[in-house]
Structure formats: C-alpha cells, structure tokens
Amino acid sequence: MQRPVTRQDFDQWIVPTYAPANFVPVKAEGSTLWDQQGRSYIDFAGGIAVNALGHAHPELQLALQQQAAKLWHTGNGYTNEPVLRLAKQLIDATFADRVFFCNSGAEANEAALKLARKAAVDRGFTQKNGIVAFDHAFHGRTLFTVSAGGQPAYSKDFAPLPAGIAHAPYNDLAAAAALITPQTCAVIVEPVQGEGGVNPATPTFLQGLRELCDRHGALLIFDEVQSGVGRTGSLYAYMHYGVTPDVLTTAKALGGGFPMGAMLTTESLAAHLNVGSHGTTYGGNPLAGAVGGKVLELVNRPEVLAGVKERHQWFVEALQAMDQRLKMFKEIRGLGLLIGCELNQNYRGKAKLINQLAAREGLMILIAGADIVRFAPSLIITQPEVQEGLVRFERACRAVAEGASI
C-alpha cells in the first residue's frame, strides 16, 4: 500500500523551480477542483490557459480511453491515424498547409525559430539570421526561446545566450522598424502577451509587422501558445486581427490538458525542415492526437466561440463593478477569456498576495508579474461558476485592501 503524499513532500523531493500552492488538487470536474481535504476551488486559472474545456470533459475522456485501448506510442519512425486527422483539422481551419507536432509551446517556438534560420540558409542568405522579438514577451524556457523572450530575469543566469536576437517595445511599430533589416530572418510576436501582462497587440502594430516582414523577406511568426484554440473568441487570434503569419505556434489548449504543441506553416516553408533536420520522440503521439482532435472539434464551433465573447463580458462587467467598490485596478484588459487586471499605484506588487488569499477563499487564479492578476478559465465555464468565483475574488481583494497578509 502506498503511503499518503502531502504538499510538504514537494519541498523534499522536487527540484525547487516552482512554488506551488499549499493545497494538492486530487479531483476535478468542469471548472471546480477538490483538494486532499475535500475542499472545493473554482478554477479561473485553467492550467495556465490549457483546460479549454474544463476538467474531466466526458468527450475528451472517451477519446483518450478509446485510443489508449488501441495504440499509445510508436516514435517518429511511424505515423498514426489520430495525428493525421488532427493535422487535417488544423489545415482546414487555418492558413496552414503543413503541421509539425511536438509536446509544448517552447518546442513549437523552437521549431519555428529554427525553421526561420534554416529557410534563409537554404535560400543562400547565410548572414540572414537576425530575429526580432519584443520586450516582456514569453516564448518558452529552452535556451533559444528564453533568449527570444523579452524578460531578462528568465535568461540572465544562463549566458552565453544564442546571438542575433534583438528586442523592441511591444506595440511600438517605429522601434520594430528600426530593428528589422535585410539580415532579419524572423519576427516573433504574441498577438496577446500573456505572461508579459495580458497586453493585446493593436491592429496597426501587427499589420505593420506584416508589411515590414514582406519588405525585408523575413518570416512573421505568431506565438499563439496562449492566445490560440478559441481563447480570444476566434479559433486563433490572427483571425481576430485579420493578419496572417507565415508560421504559427500553438500548444496549451490544443491538448485540453494533454501535453501537445504544434507549429503550423505553409507548403514552401515546410519544405526546409527536410528529413533529419528536426524531430521529437513524443511529438504526434497517438494519445495526444486523439485528444487534440476532439478538443479542436468541440472548440471550433460558432456557439463556443461566441460563448467566449459572452463570457468576456460577464467577467469585465463584474470586475468593473467590483472596482467601483474597491478602487483597486488601474486597467482591466484582454481579449476573450484571457483577462488581466492591472493593480493601481496603491496596490503595486500585491498580485501574488491576492493570488494566495484567493486560494484561501477557494479560487484558483493566475498572475502576470507583480502587478497583474490574470484569468484564463475554461472556455465553457458556467455563469454560476463565474459569479461565485468573482464573489470569492472580491473577498480576497477586500482582504488585501484591509491590510491582510499571508
């Protein structure tokens, strides 16, 4: 018989790269979780924008169970039916002609950046290797992607970093234009910055980047790891903006909780990743393909995408009303169900405290830096769950306003 495990075991056994909450979830359904003591929590975090259809969705369970009874894994020396079907779903739903499957958003971005440099070399432009990214971006934790991310706190301890990467302020087209040259092979940008503060791009900014990339022969890469799969109310955020990238990366919600990522691109660009030039052992796993296919089928429906926009209004209207009472937020922003509440001057640096006190109230939320509370709940979260979660959130915020601490 196995001995019980506790939150304290984390501190003894796990590499201390995380500081998880003081409770251990053991069961979940919809947008509610329960911990080891049976206490319930409403989930506004969504596994960091992963659980697009909530927890234990019956159709995802069935897809996984049925595939698990057939074929789990073969490696990349073989293909499989579920991943081929998912590839066709993504191609039919987007600009893309080809798909590369992997396990995470970082891997998808790594593949995109490698593709940009290899495409330039293959075309005879051996010096065309510059990459332009943006301040406060987040593209992953591999050495290449953490260097492209515009947050030095995540990269400074791992020098020397990959060279040839420059950063401009987000939403500053003039600054980007000054960096994009004939030696630029790619511009990588999040249509909505998630970790960097829930900052939506302006249409002018993304349109301008498209024009600059066309002018200089650079690839435009949209990192839609957090904004994709219905999160903004469109299947992918590029559809919301009407700007089509050359390469798109997707992960998080694509597997609905099962680890998977993908890089989408065009026929001509895909040809540069020829046999042996890139790979992954687990990417395109049949289990991931089966679950991802069902996620995409369920999310890419007009009523679900319209429901995301409706739920955005539920949140924003309630948060604005709450702020009238507490005077805590400088700005409430975001698209769809990726929402950020920036704390005003009186509450700067208190986002983590609000997160911790929310957990005490039975609510799971996210932060995006020291000053921004972030919500990324299920795309089908119910109105009663939203209402009760926001009641708990207000109690946590009121406690902060009254001087509470942990």
TrEMBL record:
HAMAP family: ArgD_aminotrans_3 (MF_01107). N(2)-acetyl-L-ornithine binds at residues 141, 280. PROSITE patterns: AA_TRANSFER_CLASS_3. GO terms for biological process: L-arginine biosynthetic process; L-arginine catabolic process; lysine biosynthetic process via diaminopimelate. This is Acetylornithine/succinyldiaminopimelate aminotransferase. GO terms for cellular component: cytoplasm. It comes from Erwinia tasmaniensis (strain DSM 17950 / CFBP 7177 / CIP 109463 / NCPPB 4357 / Et1/99). The keyword Amino-acid biosynthesis applies. It holds the Pfam family Aminotran_3. Its EC number is 2.6.1.11, 2.6.1.17. PANTHER family: AMINOTRANSFERASE CLASS III (PTHR11986), SUCCINYLORNITHINE TRANSAMINASE (PTHR11986:SF113). Involved in both the arginine and lysine biosynthetic pathways.
